[in-house]
Amino acid sequence: MIVTVASFKGGQAKTTTAIHLAALLNAHKPTLLVDGDPNRSATSWNRRKGFPFKVVDEKQAVRFSREFEHIVIDTQARPTEEDLRELAAGCDVLIVPLTPDAMSLDTLFLLTDTLKKGNAEAKLKILLTIVPPKPSRDGEEVLATLAEAKLPTFKTVIRRYKAFQKAALEGVLVNEIDSPYAEEAWSDYVNVSKELLS
Ligand code: ADP
């Protein structure tokens, strides 16, 4: 399975999603994480402690891809429309992480229009990320808007936990963080990986 993670806007948890899904898919079958983001966030995250899966940049991807069952691609932030259509064409699932705020929704609609024009929307699956806890209803409201627009979403949403920021700083996965919420935070991505593999 080739899973591409892309977004039109920074700060949507694109790299966090790519890394955690690569770890979870790797627990199932050998998985390669391709760091296609020129910021190389995944690569520098990996350099600190080292992940239990292989991370390469896109230039090395072709050489390694045959050895792996699953490939997760963290893409360049803000791809052009053409890039996005090509990314969609080259994968099985295109995950678009989305934070529940109006500006992110606007960029999401730009992205889905682009996919529709290229007949590539079938692979799209939106993942709500950094969802604030109750009493905020931001997550539910955005899910309702997406359902109204008939856009495909994961049932699981990724809740907002400081543990994710700590994990990025320490260069580890969120389940390795010393926090009472680390397991809950990890379980959100566990549930996304189950949806992916089902
Ligand atoms: P992108 O690749 O879309 O720019 P990142 O994965 O780098 O996004 O995440 C942006 C910031 O949000 C980082 O500081 C990251 O640690 C933080 N973050 C990601 N997911 C969550 C979450 N579920 N809860 C809280 N903070 C998060």
Please outline the helices and strands.
Elements: E1 2-5, H1 14-26, E2 31-35, H2 41-49, E3 54-57, H3 58-65, E4 70-74, H4 81-89, E5 93-98, H5 102-117, E6 124-128, H6 138-148, H7 162-170, H8 182-197
Bound molecules: adenosine-5'-diphosphate.
Residues 7, 10-16, 41, 129-130, 158, 160-161, 164-165, 168 line the site of adenosine-5'-diphosphate.
Write down the overall mean pLDDT. 94
Low-confidence runs of at least 5 consecutive residues: none
User: How many β-strand runs?
Assistant: 6
- Number of alpha- plus pi-helical segments: 8
Largest sheet: 6 strands, parallel
In brief:
The protein is an alpha/beta fold. Helix content is 46%, strand content 15%. The protein has helices at 14-26, 41-49, 58-65, 81-89, 102-117, 138-148, 162-170, 182-197; strands at residues 2-5, 31-35, 54-57, 70-74, 93-98, 124-128.
Name the descriptors:
198 residues; alpha/beta; six-stranded parallel sheet; 8 helices; 15% strand; globular; binds adenosine-5'-diphosphate
Explained architecture:
The chain is of the alpha/beta class. Helix content is 46%, strand content 15%. It has eight helices and six strands, in the order βαβαβαβαβαβααα. The protein has helices at residues 14-26, 41-49, 58-65, 81-89, 102-117, 138-148, 162-170, 182-197; strands at 2-5, 31-35, 54-57, 70-74, 93-98, 124-128. Strands 3-2-4-1-5-6 form a six-stranded parallel beta sheet, sandwiched between helices. Strand 5 (93-98), helix 5 and strand 6 (124-128) form a beta-alpha-beta unit. It is globular, with a radius of gyration of 16 Å. The protein starts with a strand and ends with a helix. Bound molecules: adenosine-5'-diphosphate (ADP).
